[in-house]
Amino acid sequence: MNTPRPGRLLRTAAGIELGSLLVLLVNLATVHLASISSLAGPVHGCAYLFTVVAVARDPRRTPLTTTLALLPGIGGVLALRGLTRSDATAPVDRQPAAITESARRRPALMSDDRPGASPGGSPPPSCSH
Fold it and tell me: What φ, ψ does residue 76 adopt, rounded to 5°?
């Protein structure tokens, strides 16, 4: 069974946290139905707690992302953005590409092996009449 990655769960929880807060605020500003508040309030609270714990357990966390996760509503989205940026700036360990059999048989051209190239690497003299 393939388990979801922590980043995927964090993205989902951050989206639910923000969405449920918007539902609560729109309900408060318009009709203020108790049934909407009683449903969206606990959903928002659980998503908030899940987001804070998920950020705290993420190995890419920084003190800033942990602090951002504590902001209700938008904190999960901001923390997720910070984690994504720290992941993008981290060095990537990549294995060198495998050399195919056709690449081994093909001779490599050096920069000086090009037709018309001068030994110093500068362009060939132009012919002007």
Answer: -65, -40
Give the chain's radius of gyration (CA, Å): 28
How far from 102 is each of 94, 109, 110, CA to CA, in Å? 22, 15, 18
Q: List the alpha helices (DSSP H) in the chain.
A: 6-29, 34-57, 63-69, 75-89, 101-105
Residues in CB range of 112: below 8 A, 6 or more apart? 119, 121
- Comparing CA positions, the residue from 127, 105, 129 lying closest to residue 116 is 127
Residue 6, exposed/middle/buried by CB under 10 A (0-12, 13-18, 19+)?
middle
Q: What is the pLDDT of residues 5-32, one digit of tens each?
A: 458 899 999 999 999 999 999 999 999 9
| Residue pair 27/36 in contact by the 8 Å Cβ criterion | yes
With 0.70 as the threshold, say if the pTM is over it.
no
DSSP 112: G
pLDDT in tens, 105-120: 655 555 555 565 555 5
